[in-house]
Amino acid sequence: MADLSKIASLCKRRGFIFQSSEIYGSLGSVWDYGPIGVELKNNVKNAWWKSMVYERDDIEGLDAAILMHPEVWKTSGHVTGFKDLLVDCKDCKKRFRIDQLKSKKCPECGGELTDARAFNLMFKTFMGSVEQEADEVYLRPETAQGIFVNFKNVSIASRRKLPFGVAQIGKAFRNEITTGNFTFRSREFEQMELEYFTRPDESEKWFKYWVDERFQWYLRFGIKKENIRLREHAKEELAHYAKCCYDIEFNFPFAWAELEGIANRTDFDLKQHSKVSGKDLGFFDEETKKEIVPHVIEPSGGVDRAVLAFLTDAYREETVRKDKRVVLGLHKALAPIKAAVLPLLKNRPEVVGMAREIYKDLRGSYKVSYDDTASIGRLYRRQDEIGTLYCITVDVESLTDKKVTVRDRDTMKQERISIDKLKQYIDNKIK
Ligand code: ATP
Q1: Could you tell me the distance, in angstroms and rounded to a whole number, from the CA of residue 285 to the centre of ligand 1?
Q2: Which of 4, 27, 48, 280 has the most crowded CB, counting CB atoms within 10 A?
């Protein structure tokens, strides 16, 4: 597998990921997705949304606001509980999370550490024109609460019976103390979260179901079996709301680390919100004719971590006739660009014209690119590095035989295809 610096350098060079506000010296652990990165990220989110919402009939979608009533975060336990314990080194002044330290001395210089202080990870801002405590609001540190406070709205509007789920993708913010490892731990990131509401006595069955389902999802979109594993949380590791939790871990270049967590949140959130808001968030169960508070299974994944995992997993270097070739072997549903149209002779107007027509014909349903800014060898290399599935070259012969050459990213096999059958051919390959 590639080391992280190779991935980060490819990301910058080819337009996947840039540091935020780079020309001002960057903003720490905040990242921007470039022209190729935004396609990959959208494809990851679409793949998740399709398998969660479109391919099933027990899940509804939601897009809640980032800003929420501040009471939400008191009730959820985040104001008091969403804290890391911090220590500083008295000598080198570096800061560490206590749960990540292996000894009582500074891991950088061996110096003495200060006593631990609690540090809340939520970002605060002010709503309205006066910057006073009463007007403080938070940038949400997880998307889940937007689902819990809308539980009643969604279940009534969509006439749902248990079990059913609500899926959401959106931004979350955490003022992380220890960062690094590229986008792995960012201060602004996106989550893909499902809250699956079940009868209390069925929650364990559904917990097992979702652990397996989510694990399979990563395999389905190409993550290699040897790079992914499950890890059960020990009791002392569990979040304040969770009864049990499994992490899906990926073999990142720096360590095995969490890609997604699946937690049994029990009825903690609905009960708490019910109690504090005074609104009944129970559910009348038609089957048992009883009012119950559903239990919740939560698969919670990070979009940015998934993107980083798919990138590193797909990265490979090959030698082809003594030349090095870097390929991103991304799954066809995730590949940012499905096809690239490359005219072999950019100073022959008929060839360029034909290539442009083909490009126009293909674009629209998926992302296609057109490039005539280098020699064919370099154009292929560029497309391989961003994982483009098919390269279509137009040459002088194309003018007479009305055919083009289609090159497959992985096998590098080339096929001559009639232009009038090309769209069908590419459509069939990528669907
Ligand atoms: P960690 O232990 O790595 O801090 P966590 O257990 O706090 O993560 P959760 O609160 O379970 O994370 O969040 C669910 C998912 O959201 C994680 O599995 C991860 O994919 C993503 N996520 C959480 N924090 C970050 C972050 N700072 N940057 C990028 N993704 C994140």
Answers
A1: 34
A2: 48
